[in-house]
């Protein structure tokens, strides 16, 4: 089945540093999504990407949809303590039934920030 | 708008029992998807419902089933529980407009099977 390889698995950084993580796949996706999950909660949608090459920002977060449609990356600038959590990439391929939803998730990147 | 709600938040069941989890989507959202999250397997897609019909299905055994009601609320049922079914079960809703695949997640139901 489809799999997403997300890296790094974990990051330990200093407050104020920039963060970069990425996802790659052997399959093509037509949508890439990035989520953040805090302990005991469900994932929260951060950014959605729909076009190859698209670069989208949401505050200090910037994500890009790779040209090959097989990868995406997420950058966080000037990290702050509330950025701590697990970040997931998710991909949606073109469904057999129009509109049918099925996200494939990466394994997550656990971000820890040292104050 | 209120977000996705899931009940109950926590559940403890015994092996062999069955369980039903409930999900209320964001108002106006007609698509509801279910995912299982475990430390070992991560987030795995179970199934998706739209207009009371299962539109997509993941690779889970038939013990896992679901349904959707006319008000878009959805339930997920697991029969003959196994220890390995212990997980966080997440439901997500989407407007499922043309080409829209943004899914919004609820807080999840933490199921523990003993």
Percent helix of chain A, as a range, is under 10%
Radius of gyration of chain B: 13 Å
Instruction: Outline the low-pLDDT stretches of chain B.
Output: none
The number of distinct β-strands of chain A equals 11
- Give the overall pLDDT of chain A as a whole number: 94
Largest sheet of chain B: 7 strands, mixed
Strand content of chain A: over 45%
Notes on the protein architecture:
The complex is a heterodimer of chains A (115) and B (114). Chain A is built from no helices and eleven strands. In chain A, 0% of the residues lie in helices and 52% in strands. Chain A has 115 residues and is mainly beta. Chain A has strands at 4-7, 10-14, 19-25, 31-37, 44-49, 55-58, 61-65, 71-76, 85-92, 104-105, 109-114. Chain B has 114 residues and is mainly β. Chain B is 0% helix and 53% strand. In chain B, β7 and β8 (74-78) form a beta hairpin. The model of chain B has no long low-confidence stretch (mean pLDDT 95).
Secondary structure elements and pairings:
The complex is a heterodimer of chains A (115) and B (114).
Chain A: E1 4-7, E2 10-14, E3 19-25, E4 31-37, E5 44-49, E6 55-58, E7 61-65, E8 71-76, E9 85-92, E10 104-105, E11 109-114
Parallel strand pairs in A: 2-11
Antiparallel strand pairs in A: 1-3, 3-8, 4-5, 4-9, 6-7, 7-8, 9-10, 9-11
Chain B: E1 5-7, E2 10-13, E3 19-24, E4 31-38, E5 42-50, E6 53-57, E7 64-68, E8 74-78, E9 87-94, E10 104-105, E11 109-113
């Amino acid at each position: 089945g489809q799999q997403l390889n997300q890296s790094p698995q974990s990051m330990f950084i200093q407050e104020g540093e920039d963060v970069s993580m990425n996802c790659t796949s052997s399959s093509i996706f037509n949508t890439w999504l990035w989520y953040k999950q805090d302990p005991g909660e469900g994932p929260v949608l951060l950014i959605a990407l729909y076009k190859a090459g698209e670069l989208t920002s949401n505050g200090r977060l910037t994500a890009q949809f790779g040209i090959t449609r097989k990868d995406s990356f997420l950058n966080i600038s000037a990290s702050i303590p509330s950025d701590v959590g697990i970040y997931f990439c998710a991909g949606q391929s073109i469904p057999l039934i129009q509109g049918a939803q099925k996200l494939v998730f990466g394994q997550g990147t656990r971000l820890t920030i040292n104050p | 708008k209120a977000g996705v709600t899931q009940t109950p938040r926590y559940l403890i069941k015994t092996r062999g029992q069955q369980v039903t989890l409930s999900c209320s989507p964001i108002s106006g959202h007609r698509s509801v998807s279910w995912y299982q999250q475990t430390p070992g397997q991560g987030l795995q897609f179970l199934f998706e419902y739209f207009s009371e019909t299962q539109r997509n299905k993941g690779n889970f055994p038939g013990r896992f089933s679901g349904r959707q009601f006319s008000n878009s609320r959805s339930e997920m049922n697991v029969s003959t529980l196994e220890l390995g079914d212990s997980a966080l079960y997440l439901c997500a809703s989407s407007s499922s407009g043309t080409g829209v695949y943004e899914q919004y997640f609820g807080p999840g139901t933490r199921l523990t099977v003993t």
